[in-house]
Design goal:
elongated; alpha+beta; 34% strand; binds FE2/S2 (inorganic) cluster
């Protein structure tokens, strides 16, 4: 005896094959999607690597020292690589500063000048931008943002450098010279 709710053998096979086919398609497709977006999923987890730059806290002075170090295992999408970097490290009013030397105008490398005509400022050789000792851009010059600043911590007396951060909400400083 049959009713309108009975499922025919053909319908049963159709449903079963559609279900199994869909399950298999999902099994193949989901790993591919996961692989494609994997770098995005790993971003923003707040992980921070700190690098020993070979400088002790006791070696820090009030004068910025330029230190080179190698940042290892930088991840960009699926690529992992090492990169040589430079950082200016010093103490200022009891606080440790680690500044990127990359000019925020167009990316030339600034240098620290303890001597006149622009004593105690960072200067960019490319288009003349200048920055205070703490990396704040001098008003009226091409760079309109401060030098980026690294996170710093001290472990067992050694200076460790972490992530680099822009500082966009700090006003420019009027020129002294
Ligand atoms: S790149 Fe430094 S002033 Fe232009």
């Amino acid at each position: 005896m049959s009713s309108e709710h009975d499922v025919s053998r053909r319908q049963f096979l159709n449903y079963t094959l559609t279900g199994v086919g869909g399950f298999m398609a999902a099994g193949m497709t989901l790993p591919m999607i996961r692989f494609a977006i994997d770098p995005l999923l790993k971003q923003g987890k707040g992980e921070e690597n700190f690098y020993d730059i070979g400088l002790k806290e006791s070696d820090l002075t009030e004068q910025p020292q330029k230190i080179q170090f190698v940042q290892k295992d930088i991840k960009d999408g699926w690529y992992t690589f090492d990169q040589k970097k430079e950082v200016y490290v010093f103490k200022h009013e009891g606080e440790i500063f680690a500044l990127s030397p990359v000019c925020t105008h167009l990316g030339c490398l600034v240098h620290w000048s303890p001597e006149p005509p622009y004593a105690n400022e960072f200067q960019c050789p490319c288009h003349g931008s200048r920055f205070t000792k703490t990396g704040i851009n001098i008003a009226g010059l091409p760079a309109t943002a401060p030098l980026h600043r690294y996170d710093v911590k001290v472990k067992d007396g050694k200076i460790l450098i972490g992530n680099l951060h822009p500082r966009n909400n700090i006003p420019a400083v009027p020129p002294k010279y």
